[in-house]
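Researcher: Here's the sequence for the chain we discussed earlier.
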Amino acid sequence: MKKVLFVINTLGGAGAEKALLELLKRFPENEYEVSLYVLLAQGELIHQVPEQVKILNQSYSDASVLSKKGKHILNQQIFKRLFVRGAIFKNLGYMLKNMAEMLKKGKLYPDKLLWRVMADSTQVIDGHYDMAVAFLEGGSTSYIHDHIRADRKVTFLHVDYSYAGYSRSLDRDCYLNFDRVFTVSDEVKKSFLEVYPECRSYTGVFHNLLDNEEIIRKSKLAGGFEDAYDGKRILTVGRLTAQKAYDIAIDAMKILKDHGVKAKWYVLGEGELRDRLQIKINHLGLKDDFILLGAKTNPYPYYAQCDLYVHATLFEGKSIAIQEAQILGCTLLVSDCSGNREQVIDGVDGKMCQLTPEGISAGIEELLSDEEKCREYGKKASEKLTVEKEDVLQMFRFNDN
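Model: Thanks. This is the structure I predict for it:
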């Protein structure tokens, strides 16, 4: 029986967390003893962890890290942990050095500065594992590297490494000491290896796992849009963060309205930018046109009922929201950025646009005015995904490089 430990930063309703839950289901109970540790001990998806997986957290909050209550709980915990085992003082020089480097590049990432502090101040896990897996960048990777004993150590990358604000100095070159590095797409792999060329021999692509049949089943359940609107519905699913570029999407909706396009744009997700985005929506007179619906337990009926799915973001690793939209045969408009380019072929199974209000609005107008093209793109999108059946076993093949 092989002992496997997975560590993830939080367990909220984001793409990487969903991918982890699906991965955990794939481990045969008679071959693996699988444990899970959530570094910040918070997130609503804890109740969806498979029964056979042992959760190691001694305490836990199932409040969403994106809700007001959840953010309050999370901030309280982070503040308390600054002083556990002197973590803040131990890492002060490291933080100041990397803060200076970030400011020199023109962008500060406070959360990334704190990940090593969180890793050094969290619960101590005793024991030895056959394999330990950090399923996200940042805290979980530092924790596995510095504090877990295992024969093999594996880490995952879900984002464009440099674009997301990571650096070798920030990570203290820790990736050099892992046995395997898995990226969720070829573009993420390329970006990572530009920074860590020494890791080429043990870096591979491990695509996100999704249960296509379950997604289709859930899309047919009760739910979805509740208003009586009879025009075109545009949908976007994703956290309300800067990466998702909702401010540009709102400006695009303003152009659509000024052009007389009969459409409403709905967003499923929560995040720290909600209040700021709502102020902009109200200021532009789009209260009834660009609608923040919040996070939904079952988003799939919305996918199935929308006329167009738009994913206009600054960067991606490999978007699970795009994969879900493809499974359900949605017409896709995506921004031309890393990650998206690998998932959508422009003019074949969707359309790409520039990440500008004019680019997005023009793409939406073109698609909404051509129902035949939309049907063709949706059909091609639903046909392109394949199920990755061997990835779990691949994780233990350390001698086939």
